[in-house]
Amino acid sequence: MARYIFITGGVVSSLGKGLASAALGALLQARGYKVRLRKLDPYLNVDPGTMSPYQHGECFVTDDGAETDLDLGHYERFTGRPANKQDNITTGRIYQNIIAKERRGDYLGGTVQVIPHVTDAIKAFVLDGNEDYDFVLVEIGGTVGDIEGLPFFEAIRQLGNVLPRGDVVYVHLTLMPYIPAAGEMKTKPTQHSVKELRSIGIQPDILMIRCDRQIPESEKRKLSLFCNVRESAVIPAYDVKSIYDVPIAYHQEGLDDEVLSAFGIKGAPAPVLDRWEGISGRVANPEGEVNIAIVGKYTVLKDAYKSLIEALVHGGIANQVKVNLQWIESETFEKEDPSPYLEGVHGILVPGGFGERGAEGKIAAAQFARTRKVPYFGICFGMQMAVLEAARNLAGITEANSTEFGPA
């Protein structure tokens, strides 16, 4: 029977719950266990597929065609298990299903409420299809205290009582900031976050503390005392050079041992980390470097081009070279000469986009690549702009344009 690990976040967003979940899954897998990772997203969109890249970054498309949260990409890369549409759900999709049932009369005229109908739907999603797994890791998006996340926290609280005793562990990821003026690290944000979590009935078993420097033992004891967790369950989550250093770093801090201990599992096989040590070594010791310019429309938010970043970085890892990415807003080339920006790059990548904004800048990037014989990779919109550049400057069709912007 599967055991469940619920990963929540506190203090601020973007602490790395998805990466922490993926790394923990990888460590359990390295011990010989079969794992599954799932993501619960509290926003009301049905899926992230129609959301602006500025809002949520790029969506991750699974093998079965679902448009899902980016964290599923981490899950898939770290465990090798292909993610699918049943690994990610949003509040929007849950409400859509519940309202469809209500309209059909499935509730027999009863009052439809957050408890029990919404929480029951969340629980059913979490528990479905896990028969073949030893551990199911469930990440709850957002931050404890967010009003939209309350049904999810309530659902996982209920699951702590529904499932057999000892089959649920709660992991809470928080921030321990360093205050330069005081010259010390502060535990209060974590204390408040755990207090918020406990106020809705969830006592974390393990704390993961994001920080940029060593945590003094006295501060670990303080967190243990005020947050009601064992001192050994206060796990530092330090910044590392590469995401592929994370599983090794967490193992060194005892995360996987503490999780198994929380489940009462003794005598588990030691993790086989050769794979992680190998890839970490390749990242840390490249044999060369390449410089790639990315001329895009959404460069303010790098997650908008997450798949491109991962493809380029992993291509570099496979060839043992470091890939340096140079981000350029395409509108820049509508006002300035591309040459100062693109001289010396080994390749130019122009990614997809929508609308007329920045299109001429992408055409200028394509022209620079063609005339200077720099390798050019146009994806979707980027390829379309390369065709326009060739039509205008090689075929003499000076007014060549796209129906996306106006008349052909």
Distance between the termini: 61 Å
Low-confidence stretches: none
Strand content: 15-25%
Q: How large, in whole angstroms, is the Cα Rg?
A: 24 Å
Total count of helical runs of at least 4 residues: 15
Structural overview:
Helices cover 39% and strands 18% of the residues. It has helices spanning 17-30, 53-56, 71-79, 91-104, 114-127, 150-162, 188-199, 217-227, 246-252, 255-262, 274-284, 306-318, 339-342, 359-372, 381-393; strands at 3-9, 35-41, 60-61, 67-68, 88-90, 135-140, 168-175, 178-179, 184-185, 206-211, 234-238, 288-296, 321-329, 347-350, 376-378. It has a seven-stranded parallel sheet, with helices on both faces. Strands 13-12-14-15 form a four-stranded parallel sheet, with helices on both faces. It is globular, with a radius of gyration of 24 Å.
Task: Summarize it.
The protein is built from 15 helices and 15 strands.
